[in-house]
């Protein structure tokens, strides 16, 4: 199973609009220049998306607004949506400031757009309905937009529907090495050969997203750098790593034996107040009494959207950990439920005005360490495998947030 690359970010204006080669504008092609210049679906004549967020990438401007009224937006029903999950889209025209703006200040969550029929022309919807830099977001909004930025995210942000989330498409070799004439433009030799060239390039593109060939296992885990100090714990004295539960089968019986097998990683269940309160006091400058009712922080609701804890036995469950810019506190979604939790059961220390008072915001604590484990099969004998592990520090990560 090769690992697929989600693509690259290209800052707006970071790549000057390329000059369209004259050869495409003259006979026998005679293409209109407007079809070849940079647009919302291509950059430098390569497939691209206009946003990292899939439900923004599929929007297009409608008719210009009247004086004092911004132009509306609608779902584009005429063109194929530039989906990174297709394996063809390798460029996203955006920058980190734009990403932060959407995550922190989107006026609606993706569910506010997600159920629009794609063939309905939603004309005249003000841009401010989707994005308002003055709006105060909440935790669930931020998490929903983070999920929308995943390259293979599709039509359902409900966290109970993880089974509907596909992987990025990849091919170990082009599905079609050549395109037959019957599927090509028949208006002349020039257009036919041009279409053949870009269709064959698309086939090759499906193989270019693979950056780790013959990878049979790829695991990402993270840690706040804390050491388990609970006497009798199976990981006592070891650094605590979070992710899908994973253990070392000490006796080789193929099943987990508590007290015998060594836990290598466990689902995140929050950081105990013993560690969290001193960190929050240092980072926020607020008195310890402000966190008197805090039981854990960060909590599973913050990092994992409150998803049920996966069991130690491997299953199809996905564990997604999210790290944002700041935590405005738990609260109801502004646009409705959508399957998200409304409160944080592990943290009752939030003031009732948290969502309207920015002074209540807290830092969204990032990991101190990230561990990547991958197993790669031999090129000539797939039964021979080698496992490699890399641990690296996260800048400004950890509970002390240095």
Explain this structure:
The protein is of the alpha+beta class and 402 residues long. The chain has two domains: 3-170, no CATH class; 214-402, no CATH class. It has eight helices and 14 strands. A four-stranded mixed β-sheet has the order 2-7-4-3, with no helix packed on it. Strands 5-6-8 form a three-stranded antiparallel β-sheet. Strands 10-13-14 form a three-stranded antiparallel β-sheet, with no helix packed on it. Strand 3 (42-43) and strand 4 form a beta hairpin. Helix 3 packs across helix 5 (139-148). The chain is flat and about 75 Å long. The protein starts with a strand and ends in a 9-residue tail after the last strand.
Number of helices: 8
Radius of gyration: 25 Å
| Parts with pLDDT < 50 across at least 5 consecutive residues | 1-6, 63-79, 114-127, 332-342
Straight-line distance between termini:
38 Å
Mean pLDDT: 74
Helicity level: 10-25%
Question: How many domain units?
Answer: 2
Q: Give the strand tally.
A: 14
Structural class, by secondary structure, is alpha+beta
* SSE sequence, one letter per element: EEHEEHEEEHHEHHEEEEHHEE
Approximate shape: flat
Q: Major β-sheet, in short?
A: 4 strands, mixed
Q: What spatial order of strands do you see in the largest sheet?
A: 2-7-4-3
Report strand %.
5-15%
Sequence-ordered SSE layout with sheet pairings:
Elements: E1 3-4, E2 8-10, H1 22-25, E3 42-43, E4 46-49, H2 54-57, E5 59-61, E6 72-75, E7 91-93, H3 96-105, H4 111-114, E8 125-126, H5 139-148, H6 189-208, E9 210-212, E10 215-223, E11 246-248, E12 262-265, H7 273-284, H8 300-304, E13 369-377, E14 385-393
Parallel strand pairs: 2-7, 4-7
Antiparallel strand pairs: 1-9, 3-4, 5-6, 6-8, 10-13, 11-12, 13-14
């Amino acid at each position: 199973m090769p690992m697929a690359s989600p693509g690259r970010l290209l800052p707006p204006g970071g790549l000057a609009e390329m000059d369209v080669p004259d050869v495409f504008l003259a006979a026998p092609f005679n293409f209109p220049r407007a079809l070849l210049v940079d647009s919302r679906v291509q950059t430098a004549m390569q497939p691209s998306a206009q946003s990292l967020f899939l439900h923004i990438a599929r929007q297009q401007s409608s008719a210009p607004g009247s004086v004092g009224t911004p132009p509306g937006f609608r779902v584009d029903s005429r063109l194929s949506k530039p989906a990174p999950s297709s394996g063809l889209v390798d460029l996203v025209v955006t920058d980190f400031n734009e990403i932060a703006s959407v995550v922190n200040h989107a006026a609606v969550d993706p569910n506010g757009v997600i159920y629009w029929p794609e063939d309905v022309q939603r004309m005249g919807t003000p841009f401010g309905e989707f994005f308002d830099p003055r709006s105060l977001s909440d935790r669930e909004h931020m998490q929903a937009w983070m999920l929308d930025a995943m390259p293979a995210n599709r039509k359902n942000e409900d966290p109970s529907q993880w089974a509907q989330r596909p992987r990025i498409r990849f091919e170990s070799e082009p599905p079609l090495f050549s395109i037959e004439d019957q599927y090509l433009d028949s208006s002349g030799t020039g257009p036919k050969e041009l279409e053949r060239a870009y269709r064959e390039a698309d086939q090759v593109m499906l193989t270019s997203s693979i950056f780790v060939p013959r990878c049979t296992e790829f695991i990402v885990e993270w840690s706040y750098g804390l050491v388990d100090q609970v006497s009798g714990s199976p990981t006592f004295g070891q650094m605590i790593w979070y992710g899908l539960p994973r253990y070392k089968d000490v006796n080789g019986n193929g099943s987990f034996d508590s007290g015998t097998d060594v836990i290598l990683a466990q689902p995140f269940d929050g950081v105990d107040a013993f560690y969290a309160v001193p960190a929050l006091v240092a980072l926020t400058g607020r008195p310890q009494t402000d966190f008197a009712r805090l039981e854990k922080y960060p909590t599973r609701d913050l990092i994992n959207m409150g998803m049920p804890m996966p069991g130690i036995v491997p299953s199809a469950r996905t564990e997604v950990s999210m790290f944002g810019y700041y935590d405005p506190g738990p609260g109801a979604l502004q646009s409705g439920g959508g399957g998200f939790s409304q409160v944080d059961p592990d943290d009752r220390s939030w003031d009732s005005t948290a969502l309207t008072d920015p002074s209540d915001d807290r830092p969204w604590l990032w990991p101190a360490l990230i561990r990547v484990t991958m197993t790669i099969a031999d090129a000539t004998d797939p039964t021979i495998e080698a496992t490699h592990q890399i641990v690296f520090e996260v800048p400004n990560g950890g509970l002390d947030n240095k």
